[in-house]
Amino acid sequence: MKIFITGITGLLGSYVAREFADLGEIHGLKRTSSSTRLLDEEDFPIIWHEGDLSDQESLEHFIQGMDLVIHAAGLVSFDSRDSDALMEVNVQGTANLVNAMLNAQVSRLIHVSSVAAIGRSSGISQIDEKFKWVESSLNTDYAISKYGAELEAWRGEQEGLNLLVVNPSILLGKIADERSSTTIYDYVLEEHGYYPTGHINYLDVRDAARMIRGLYEKNAWGQRFILNAASMPYQEFFQKMAEIFSKKAPSKKASGILLKLAVILAGLGRTLGISKNPLNKKTAMISTQKISFDNQKATRLLEYEYRSLEDTFSWAK
To answer: Contact at 8 Å (CB) between 38 and 120?
Structure first.
């Protein structure tokens, strides 16, 4: 079997490649400037294809003869200045890949989305796969772009693709992976004093990759699955992390005036180019929400047992 993976040089893509390596021949899409560091020490071969999602013609050439495409590529940003780039990479890039698959007659697609693509709504605290997207002040530009990308994937199914969609929550990798989702560790490593008042939904990246393979092996085509280990208060999450990392945990609530001040300072830091802090009005509002993404559908189908958070943090450091 030939398996083509976009986003293979990223956090989840690299773990998915490891998980699927014994099922077939791994092909990876990479940009010329992309680092392959996360996979350089693996003992399985990867056939590399240099290009990007903006070039549909090249994608058609690359995926000729593939048996499975795993689309894990995407841009993650919560900076309003990146709104156009998010739409170009996440939405148009997915549309290009879907079109390339249809033209090349490659029929099986695993689309890696995000819980952000499911959306949020004020007053709703439990969200599952049946939740319908609604316009909401809680939906970031990133969420809107992932929702649009998912619509393109489902459009592909209507035109003949076998589609499996997964919606992972915040992925926890190793600190050494140095990817955007692992920067959450910096908050405790730098011993910040304040914690958000809401809940975090999280998942060990190794569990995410294993579950994606499990769903593939279950032939769960035509369905979407939330991948999420648990939801817990940020305070508890950071406390557990601090204990494992031997750091001081944040002990003060970030709310009201303090949260507004943090948003202003984060915006100033981005403007001056001295910080990539993702905090803005929307992400600040989200950090106060006590929302849980229901994992029962995938958990029951796979009879899956998640790694403990303590195990994840110990491995991560």
So the answer is: no
Structure tokens at 161: 């693709």
DSSP state, residue 91: I
DSSP code per residue over 14-64: HHHHHHHGGGSEEEEEE-TT---GGGTT-SS-EEEEE--TT-HHHHHHHTT
| Range 2-173+201-230+291-307: architecture per CATH | 3-Layer(aba) Sandwich (3.40)
In whole angstroms, how far apart are CA 144 and each of 37, 66, 158, 178, 269? 30, 30, 21, 25, 25
Structure tokens at 234: 């940020």
Pairing status of strand 230-233 against strand 199-204? antiparallel
Cα separation, 8 vs 73, in Å, equals: 7
Return the bridge partners of 108, or none. Answer: 162
Helices (H), the chain: 11-20, 56-62, 83-86, 93-104, 141-158, 184-189, 205-217, 234-245, 257-272, 281-286, 296-302, 309-316
Model's pTM, two decimal places? 0.91
Residue-wise pLDDT tens digits, 52-109: 999 999 999 999 999 999 999 999 988 778 899 999 999 999 999 999 999 999 999 9
DSSP 90: I
Q: Is the dihedral of CA 126, 128, 132, 138 positive or negative?
A: positive
What are the tokens at 41? Answer: 């020490």
Between helix 93-104 and helix 141-158 the angle, nearest 10°, is 10
pLDDT in tens, 120-133: 877 788 999 999 99
